[in-house]
Amino acid sequence: MTTAPADDTRWLTDEEQRIWRAYMHAVTLLEDHLDRQLQRDAGMPHVYYGLLVQLAEAPQRRLRMTELAMRAKITRSRLSHAVARLEKNGWVRREDCPSDKRGQLAVLTEQGYAVLSDTAPGHVAAVRQALFDRLTPEQQKSLGEIMSIIAEGLQPSEAGADLPWLR
Amino acid sequence: MTTAPADDTRWLTDEEQRIWRAYMHAVTLLEDHLDRQLQRDAGMPHVYYGLLVQLAEAPQRRLRMTELAMRAKITRSRLSHAVARLEKNGWVRREDCPSDKRGQLAVLTEQGYAVLSDTAPGHVAAVRQALFDRLTPEQQKSLGEIMSIIAEGLQPSEAGADLPWLR
């Protein structure tokens, strides 16, 4: 005879629920806010903006697609889709990787760089207004520490880890 | 003769950049992690799970669509799309609102409640493992305070505010 398994789930306490919901609300609202601002000002969602920034900061404004997916923390299929759209806008172009026949590079075009330059001030203002301007220096420091801990925990270094850009 | 406008953008400092990127990385990785876990265990993305939770907690397990959009902090069109999918799964059904002819209710079905009950332990474990288990009690408290400040700042109470569920 078997007995029903005891419920050993460590349910969230009321306080943990409040923290978790505040996190979900802030994250959902902030992403909506930044998407909205970037769609209005440049016709692109926040994730595309992040890709343009990564390319602008890279040597010769180009990165291997696999590296770009890793830096943006997204899957390769999501990146392919985004880059196809950015290519259509004339903001990015793809080139074969000279050192690896199967590899591809994403290259920021002059037009892409210009769009990014025009869009950056409004985006930075939105980030400041929604986040930095509302937090004390101690809260900002604490936020950075907490978010680094969470991000590092979700990127185990062992082989076979389920990371978006390795799928 | 006009002079070029001075660049009065308050660019992020190096430290602010680090904080902002840690935030983006943590948020992107955690959402991917929870989506992945819920897709694997129940074939639904994280946002759908959140809708089922809201309905399960409501009196008679039902909410007006507008109220559900507000609680989930999403647009009405995104909610409509999600509820259509949940309806197809047999987890939610829609009913006309008895007090308002134009209003609609989303109602959690028995099947939806059962799926939620089966899925919740795995989801809570994933949230604990990725977030609560990694943070000290002080960091958890700080995270709750910071996220509440950000969420409140993005939900101005004045009429005409650009809130997702009012679009």
From TrEMBL, chains A, B:
Residues 16-152 form the HTH marR-type domain. SUPFAM superfamilies: Winged helix' DNA-binding domain (SSF46785). PROSITE patterns: HTH_MARR_2. Transmembrane segments: none annotated. It comes from the Bacteria. Pfam families: MarR_2 (PF12802). InterPro entries: HTH_MarR-typ (IPR000835), MarR/SlyA-like (IPR039422), WH-like_DNA-bd_sf (IPR036388), WH_DNA-bd_sf (IPR036390). PANTHER family: MARR FAMILY REGULATORY PROTEIN, TRANSCRIPTIONAL REGULATOR, MARR FAMILY. This is MarR family transcriptional regulator. It comes from Streptomyces lannensis. The lineage of its organism: Bacteria, Bacillati, Actinomycetota, Actinomycetes, Kitasatosporales.
